[in-house]
Amino acid sequence: MRVWIDADACPRAAKDLVIKFALKRNFEVLLVAGQSQVKPTFACVRLVVVPSGPDAADDYLVENAAPGELVICSDIPLADRLFKKGVAALDPRGREFDERNMGERLALRNLLSDLRDQGQMGGGQPPYGERERQAFANALDRLLVRLSR
Predict the structure, then answer these.
(1) Is there a contact between 133 and 17 (Cβ–Cβ < 8 Å)?
(2) How many CB atoms within 10 Å of residue 136?
(3) Model confidence, pTM
(4) Rg (CA), the chain
(5) Where are the alpha helices (DSSP H) in the chain?
(6) Cα(14)–Cα(2) distance, rounded to whole angstroms?
(7) 133, 144, 141: which is closest to 70 by C-alpha?
(8) CA nearest 123: which of 131, 133, 132, 113?
(9) Which of 45-54, 67-76, 93-102, 111-120 has the lowest mean pLDDT?
């Protein structure tokens, strides 16, 4: 079992939580980033730095993650590409990407992007706090159990 993380955009608390789960459950964590990062010193964690460029980390994740594995990402178009390939995707706030919500999430993302481009709305997500971390931990636990079956 491997869990991939889109490391450039993932909050540190979520990355740390995945690593904590990996140490307890004995699976590999791959941090994929477009720029160098500090890699935790645990043997179960690998850092993959991809060449810079638009969507280079996304493309790497889609090419290398396999069905039955999990990718942690906030990027909805990336999650859609992964989902179509049979790879589970979870955002760091504990929301799983699945067939019931993918179309809606893509449509909402496109609408909000258009509104930001027109200057009608500010950007960015709310701060990542304890509530988000707990929701992520619960969803991660459920998904790992489901994927290990």
Answers:
(1) yes
(2) 23
(3) 0.85
(4) 15
(5) 12-25, 56-64, 76-85, 102-117, 130-148
(6) 16
(7) 144
(8) 113
(9) 111-120
